[in-house]
Amino acid sequence: KVIISANQDQCINQPFTLDAGGPEDDTSVSHTWQRIPTWTSAKYGNVITDEVSTPGVYKYYCTSLSAYPMGSGLPACYNMDSITITVHGTPGSISASYNVLDCDLYKVKLEAYAPAPGVFNWSNGTTGDTTITYTGGPYRVWYTDTFGCINHEDVYVPKQPQEYLWIFPRGCYDLCLQSAPYVLKGINPDWLSISWDWIKNGSSDVSGYGTVPDYSLNSSGTYNLALGNGSCTDTSETMFVNFIDCPDVNCSNDIDFNVLRVWHYIDPVTFKCTDSIEVNLFNISAPPGASYTLTAKNGLIIPGSGILPPPPVPSKFRFIAKPGFSGSTDTLVLKVTYPDGRVCIVTRIITFSVPPCDNSLAKRTDDGREATIVSNEIARLLIAPNPAQDLASVEYTFTGKANQRSIELFDMTGRRIISENVIEPDGKAILHLENLSNGIYQVILRQDGKVFLHSKLSIAK
After folding, report:
1. Rounded mean pLDDT, 422-430
2. Is the pLDDT confidence value at 367 over 50?
């Protein structure tokens, strides 16, 4: 006997099955299916699959024919059953929105609404019509109604302004008037509703909305960058700028500064990539104690400063290209400061026969782990790269005597994720972040149980 079984509520554009019962390999019974509204041709088999692209009510009929062996004297046996299937359309329009509850923690409430009862599933793995997140970015919510039909909606949460402010220079800078103006690079965030404000001496200088433009420095003072995402605002740490007069000094007879060679090396075992520069840098007749700094427009020079050495041994420097720089030439800037305060600036062009090492992402340090060197200046708490992916380097300097020092990492709920004791007051530690989710974290230097310094770390994989 035919007995059709199927879920009588289905969704458009989703395949579903109808089962008339009986074993599939029974060749003595044939099943013929019809549908109203009808198909262009019948379907056969005790189990069939159908898919409907138009909502509505559909009637399915199945007729079975049992054929007895010829000569048995028994007639064929017919059976029929029917079932009504209601095919439901895509659930009505749903909406999704966000509301920032706490700017310091960047605690964000996501909320979804649908005109009828159902279930909500979010792309961050949570369920319900509301959920909490601590990081910006795209989110999707799927809504399933009582019939099992699904619709979705997307919502974009602007990222926390602090995630972009780590690139702003902080600390004290002496700049030559003769080289002004200097340029602070703007940013192009992934949210369009950004408000920005270049701040000079505590007051707004240039402000606007959208992409942050470059900003020119041409006078002494304090500088900050403030960003807002429509819900939260944050201001960078302060850059202290002092413009000084750097009169031209003809030091060509006092020093020897010439580039000897530039070479690019990849270790065949570790695949570590390095770029080096060898120069003649001698004090010929400059006053004793004359100091120098050596910089590159498109890279970092290590070591970047010292006292002018006597001849005749050439000096070797490490060159670390800025992210995105691929050669083929760069400019070395040598600044020599005489004991009486006079300054001499000499430039030299260096040429790369092959592109320098790519530092656009975290690259390998001497211990083979991932890190990015972003500054050779002494820093009490320097985190790089930031944002980070799987690893971050923390350069630290504690001051004063102490019995116990540690580096700790907390998430924005206050949960301690990492705690590492350190012995030396100066050093570098590597934080392993492979198992952590995207978001904002706090890195804390703790000394004898008290917070010594802290800074935010962004993880963006």
Report:
1. 85
2. no
Question: Tens digits of per-residue pLDDT, 285-298?
Answer: 788 888 888 888 88
At 369, list the tokens: 């782990």
What pTM was estimated for this model as a whole?
Answer: 0.52
User: Partners of 60 in the beta sheet?
Assistant: 35, 83
Is the pLDDT score of 441 beyond 80? yes
Ranges of beta strands (E only) in 104-251 are 107-113, 118-122, 130-133, 137-145, 150-157, 171-176, 182-184, 195-200, 203-209, 215-217, 221-228, 233-235, 239-244
Q: Which residues pair with 316 in a beta bridge?
A: 278
Separation CA 159–CA 83 (nearest Å)? 53
Q: How far apart are CA 46 and CA 41, in angstroms?
A: 16
d(CA 417, CA 408): 7
Calculate mean pLDDT across residues 156-160: 88
Structure tokens at 343: 């300054």
In the 8-state DSSP scheme, what is residue 179?
Answer: G
Cα distances (angstroms) measured from residue 451 to each of 169, 247, 447? 24, 45, 6
